[in-house]
Amino acid sequence: GPLVMGTLPPAALIWLLVSPFVCTLPNTGNKPRIYVGIPMNWPIKKESTKLNLRALINTWGQRVDILRFYVHEKQLLEYPAKDSGIIEGFEAYIDPIPMERSDRIEERNIWEKMWRGWKLAARKYLNEADWFMKADIDTFLIIDNIRAFLSFLDPKKPHYLGHTLMHEWDKFNLVFNSGIGYILSREVLRRYGQRLNQGMETVGIQEKKYQCYDRGGPLEDPNTAGCLRELGIRPGDTLDKMGRQRFNLFRPRDLLFNMKYIPEDWYWKNKMSIGKKQLGFGCCSNMPLAWHNFKSGKGVFDPEAFEELEYVYGSQNYQSRIKAMELDPPTGNLFQFREDELSFKIDKDGNALLEKHGPDVQIGRWLRDHPETAQCYETGSTCDCKIPELPDGVVHDCGGDVIGHGEKCKGRCGNGYEMIIDSLDIMRKKENKRTQDFFECDGGMLMFPRFYCAKLCVIPESPKGTSFSLSKGSELAHQQTVALRCENSPKTHLLSCLNGRLFGRVSACFGPCVEVKLKLKGSRYTMDQWEYITASVLKGDKFQIIEVEAGGPRDPVGNCPSFGHKKQLLLVTEGPLDSRGQRLVQPLSCGNQEITIIAKERANEVNCPEEFFDT
To answer: Maximum distance among all alpha carbons in the chain?
Structure first.
């Protein structure tokens, strides 16, 4: 049967594989500029993870043009990157992501972090790179091979590249590239950013699966593909001419010696005869672009593997890679599949023709529902930009709510806010490069200034038994400090202003703190971490489990409405010495059960923890 790229007949396919006109000639004059964004939990506590990040930055991270780590903004305020111990200047690689949900590892809210990360990348870096890549912290990228590969493709065309997985094609009409490392051309990010600027409706975690909505949970790679599917963008062909993978989901030794062909497994499903060839030494191209999964089953990373791979791939120069890639360039076509081997029928656009698939999951749905967006693509991307809702504190001098294509206007911070220059621009400022402080419209995609506005702190009334070194109502700049004096002791504690909130050892004025170990039990289910909760609290504090409105101002998680629950359960403390009321220890679960404290053990005195003054 025919080997199909899209729905091409065999003769056309053979012509495409050998034709010198399929791809552009390699761009040897200017190296393709590459941006890489990596989502991760914060703070980093495991030493092996810190070592792996250090190895990543010192190996392939040195070869990309822009390297950014996506970190939950609230976590970053509480655990500053400069104190992480990962590498000196690590804060310069971080982009804070303003998430609505928590950053707890067990909740794995990677999808929200990633779509907001792509939105930020489109707004701030669209003109800074040609190709935009997502990777994991255990992915090793061979950057010079990637540059050589991309030299044959045009970033002004909609290319979506990676290791293509097809196991959800018949279930959800979705084909997607694995999140170990996929690439968006500048044109794809421009269109995707424009779509994200138009808003993301929130749904439950299991609702409208793989459609372009905001929801809790992981699975960022199929959800990203779901958003691109709405825009008519499908994965491109990245196999070499022998049908081997260039983007590899596992380590070399695992792919070479440990893989078995199981037709219904997620890795192999719908790859059929093309996949069968990818066993043993047929697995991987001799010019790979990515390897992945350099960690043990317990989540311990292997930084030495990065150093070994750097030794293998770091010795050749970019020009030599282009010459090698000329023998096996990318085709520029859609991903490869055999239509005659599929267990379902597809239409000319690649939609699986199954009754369970409604119009909401059809390729190009958003364009059909929003003809003005489709017209923007068809007119050579010269349409205007609407100004969306802006981040807190950011204002513009654009004279209206629309900016014309190619136009710029000034951005600034409003009253009560302070401008904080983007960490990337802090490095560039040292090189006398200008900070991007303007909005710019590029074919319907509005790019934002590269700064954020941090809220000034207003000094509140001090807690009973304490006094501030500044008078009530005084303003304090972001990251500046104010002294909190304890009336019953000579001690003074410094509180820092972190985006409008004071942070420090407030509890230390009210007596000694002790470490308490708790064990909790739920009436419907019990989480593993409830077996050993440890909290540093004031001596004499009492623990309580309370209900708050799910999604309300006291809910630090925000995902219970996604499960249809109206309450969030919190573990809090409240004591006679501290006049600040209840203080959060940690969120527990949604309010569809009762949770009780079944054991409590008091330990020795400890230093009082740092905390936000308003918690």
So the answer is: 88
Residue 74 has pLDDT above 90, yes or no: no
Q: What are the φ and ψ backbone dihedral angles of 441, each rounded to 5 degrees?
A: -100, 125
Q: What pLDDT was estimated at residue 12?
A: 29
Q: Count CB neighbours of 254 within 10 A.
A: 15
Burial of 513 (0-12, 13-18, 19+ CB in 10 A): buried
- Rounded distance between C-alpha atoms, residue 208 and residue 211, angstroms: 6
pLDDT at position 614, please? Answer: 64
Q: Any idea which residue has 């495409």 for tokens?
A: 16
Q: Which amino acid is at 603?
A: A
Among 8, 67, 76, 64, smallest CA distance to 38 is for: 67
The residue ranges of DSSP E strands in 258-307, in sequence order, are 290-291
Q: What is the 3-state secondary structure of 313-352?
A: HCCCCHHHHHHHHCCCCCCCCECEECHHHCCCCECCCCCE
Report pLDDT for 17: 29
Considering only residues 480 and 1, tell me which one the structure prediction assigns the higher pLDDT: 480
Q: What is the rounded end-to-end Cα distance, in angstroms, of the chain?
A: 65
Which residue intervals of 10-79 are DSSP H helices? 10-18, 47-58, 73-78
- Tens of pLDDT, residues 12-58: 222 222 232 334 456 656 789 999 999 999 999 889 899 999 999 99
So what's the pLDDT on residue 435?
58
The confidence score (pLDDT) of residue 426 equals 58
> How would you write 28-41 as a 3-class SS string?
CCCCCCEEEEEECC
- The single-letter code of the amino acid at 604 is N
* Distance in angstroms (rounded) separating the CA atoms of residues 478 and 253: 49
The pLDDT of residue 525 is above 70:
yes
Query: 225-228: which pairs have CB atoms within 8 A and are 24 or more residues apart?
Result: 225/160, 225/174, 225/175, 225/176, 225/177, 226/174, 226/176, 226/361, 227/115, 227/192, 227/195, 227/196, 228/160, 228/188, 228/192
Report the C-alpha gap between 197 and 389 in whole angstroms.
9
Any idea what the Cα angle at residue 93 is, between residues 297 and 79, rounded to 5°?
A: 70
Number of H helices, E strands in the chain: 15, 33
- CA gap 397, 377 in Å, rounded: 27
Structure token pair of residue 390 = 């802006």
Report the predicted TM-score, pTM, of the whole model to 2 decimal places.
0.82
Burial class of 543 by CB neighbour count within 10 A (0 to 12, 13 to 18, 19+): middle
Of residues 252 and 299, more confidence is placed in 252
User: Which residue's entry shows tokens 């044959």?
Assistant: 152
Token reading at 267: 């890795």
Decide if 83 contacts 50 (C-beta within 8 A): no
Q: What angle do CA 58, 59, 62 make, to 5 degrees?
A: 70
Determine the Cα angle at 245 with ends 239 and 247, to 5°.
105
Distance CA 192, CA 200 (A): 12
Of 138, 176, 68, the C-alpha closest to 291 is: 138
What one-letter code names the amino acid at 164?
T
Compute φ and ψ for 150, nearest 5 degrees.
-75, -20
